[in-house]
Specification:
This protein has helices at residues 44-57, 74-85, 99-107, 120-135, 147-163, 180-192, 244-258, 264-280; strands spanning 18-20, 29-34, 66-70, 89-95, 111-115, 171-175, 197-202, 238-241, 285-290. The chain has 291 residues and is an alpha/beta fold. The chain has 2 domains: 18-41 and 151-290, Rossmann fold (3-Layer(aba) Sandwich), CATH 3.40.50; 62-135, Rossmann fold (3-Layer(aba) Sandwich). Strands 1-2-9-6-7-8 form a 6-stranded mixed sheet. β4, α3 and β5 (111-115) form a beta-alpha-beta unit. α1 (44-57) crosses α2.
Amino acid sequence: MVMVVEAQDNLGVGHTPLYKLHTPADYAAVYVKLDYKNPTGSTKDRVAVEIIRQALNHDLLQANGTLVEASKKDFGLSLTVFAKKMGCHAVIVMPEDAQAQKAVIEAHGGQVVTTSANLGMEGARKKAQLLADEKGWFMPNQYYNPANSDAHEKGTGPEIIAALAGKRIDAFVAGINTGGTLSGVGHALKEEWVGTQVVALSNHHTPFLQQEKSQPYSLESLGNGFVPDILDRDIYDEVLQLDLAAAQKLGSEVARREGIVVKAKAAENIWTAYQVARRLGPGKIVVTIAP
């Protein structure tokens, strides 16, 4: 029997603040979506809820059923917390040397399966897939699951539009990671305004972004051993190369000046947003995200 979970039952996820940063007078305005204010401290809460909701609604996951995912970062915690809230059970697979992450998952009632540290995350992914196949468990697979980008197209993007009360957003900036935020928010904003620019951030993990979109690229490009299927390579208009040292410096300055949390990915996004804001100039609006 299919368990229908309504989209509005977001379990406290989303509707995070959109914060206007201080910028030089000759820059465009820069706003940052403070998505670390989601319940577990990460934008991954949005993704976890939407993936579980769609899986339940499409009978891919049963009430009281089990999902399994390889993760040693935020997504594992998000799945653990929201699987429990939505009547399911999460099993998170990670390398055995990820002891701090293991402790966090277990403290929140999740089950952790460990794999050899020598095999890295690729070994964890293979183990998760094996468990899914053998036991019939649902595997969220955030890099390949379109519900990831749906979470941002239906949630993050419209929230940004509503927060600015009709003001045109001239550019949106985001790193690549799974491709969900860039693709989902990008679609929402381009649907609202023709000509809104979507700018992708490129770093040492994402050199494939610099290649022509029609050219093949290495499966090792992301540093994770695979390229996210859900990345819409037609949605971004431009790729800017990250200056990591400059991003770290700006992130520290913004954190001190604004009194907000600026983790590594947020610092990279904000630095890139500032480059776009400098180019666009006064009277324009640039938005990014602190995931």
